[in-house]
Design a protein that fits this description.
This protein is mainly β. Helix content is about 5%, strand content about 35%. The protein folds into 2 domains: about 15-125, no CATH class; about 135-220, no CATH class.
Length: about 220
């Protein structure tokens, strides 16, 4: 599927059909019913989920605090962003002793972790910009400690699996794709190389974010349908 260029993707003329835990949408926008789970045996070990927000989010959705408030402060313990220069997580709780100075901006192309106190079926609303380019960084002093990026999976990408994402970015540039397994707080890794096989590949799920480890820098423009 060829990449198509659009300018100014908006919510005008949004045509979506929302079903439980499913996404059906036009190229212009979407709604997604995305389950954020509290700690539940066999489902979520610590109440932590990844979340991928759209490039063009709903009005007022600009920071970690905005996201916490939209999900529901009473239901959320924290939102975390991955800091590529240190391979560490920066945490915002929206509670004392933290202040507004600890809040951080939500950046297109980046995924986040959300830790929950209760189960919430969160409705994600927005649109992706098919012309957007996301920088995926290799290991560079002061920029990326290990070449690992926490990528916001696009909602209209043609890449439907880890292998598809590796191929779309460029096989020679990617070391691996990792998904967060919330039932175990572990990472499942796919490299696209021996000794792994097709059985190690995994589907990419709208609403989830993925770790992408790079060998080279790539200005990535996802292929869209």
């Amino acid at each position: 599927m060829s990449k198509r260029t659009y300018i100014g993707a908006t919510m005008v003329g949004l045509a979506v059909v929302l079903t439980a835990s499913a996404l059906v949408a036009s190229n212009m926008g979407f709604k997604l019913n995305y389950t954020l789970n509290q700690t539940t045996v066999g489902v979520s070990k610590s109440g932590t989920s990844t979340i991928a927000l759209p490039d063009n989010r709903q009005s007022g959705m600009n920071t970690a605090k905005n996201l916490i408030d939209d999900i529901g402060l009473a239901s959320v313990t924290s939102v975390q962003r991955y800091v590529i220069s240190s391979d560490a997580l920066a945490t915002y709780t929206a509670r004392a002793p933290q202040t507004a100075a600890n809040d951080f901006a939500l950046v297109p192309g980046q995924g986040y972790f959300v830790k929950m106190k209760t189960n919430v079926n969160y409705i994600i609303v927005g649109s992706d910009d098919p012309a957007a380019s996301y920088t995926l960084n290799q290991t560079q002093v002061g920029v990326s400690k290990s070449g690992t990026n926490f990528y916001q999976y696009n909602y209209h990408q043609t890449a439907a699996t880890a292998k598809g994402l590796i191929d779309d970015i460029g096989f020679a540039s990617v070391t691996s794709i990792q998904r967060y397994v919330k039932s175990s707080d572990a990472l499942a890794t796919y490299t696209g190389r021996a000794p792994q096989t097709a059985a190690n590949d995994f589907p990419l799920v709208p609403g989830e974010a993925y770790f992408v480890k790079m060998k080279t820098n790539v200005a990535y423009v996802p292929s869209h349908y």
